[in-house]
Design goal:
- This protein is an alpha+beta fold.
- Helices cover 29% and strands 30% of the residues.
- It has a five-stranded antiparallel β-sheet.
- The radius of gyration is 17 Å and the shape is elongated.
Amino acid sequence: MAELTHLDAAGAANMVDVSDKAATTRTARAVGTVVMLPETLALIREGDAKKGDVIGTARLAGIMAAKRTHELIPLCHPLLISKVRVDCEIDETLPGLTVTAEVKVIGPTGVEMEALTAVSVACLTIYDMVKAADRGMRIEGIRLLAKDGGRSGAYRAEVAG
């Protein structure tokens, strides 16, 4: 198992010094789902949610969250993010929405936390916008799908099933 980099010799949390690391292109992709009643999904699909455009608002919330991850998660570095893409796809089989985020930076540290934060906040925004219709929605499966760049190289999540 890899050593935990955010702990010093005494076990205290600290921010990792990345000043000696090379600035390279780094990307990360994450995913999560919001499972809901078919009737709630119909409200979203048809644009009839009382609070407005659920998918558009969730996409913007995810982008904003990725850019502010360092303000939300202790010990994350503030990054000059080059790209954030958040997609919310209707999935009738859930029923619900699948949210994916891709984040890119040229810098000395990765963007896994930014991708995960983008997905998390987009899912929470979906919940908030239609909770009046369905308080039993479930946010599930938020996880890292892939990352590239940096000393540790590439990572790809194993495909379930």
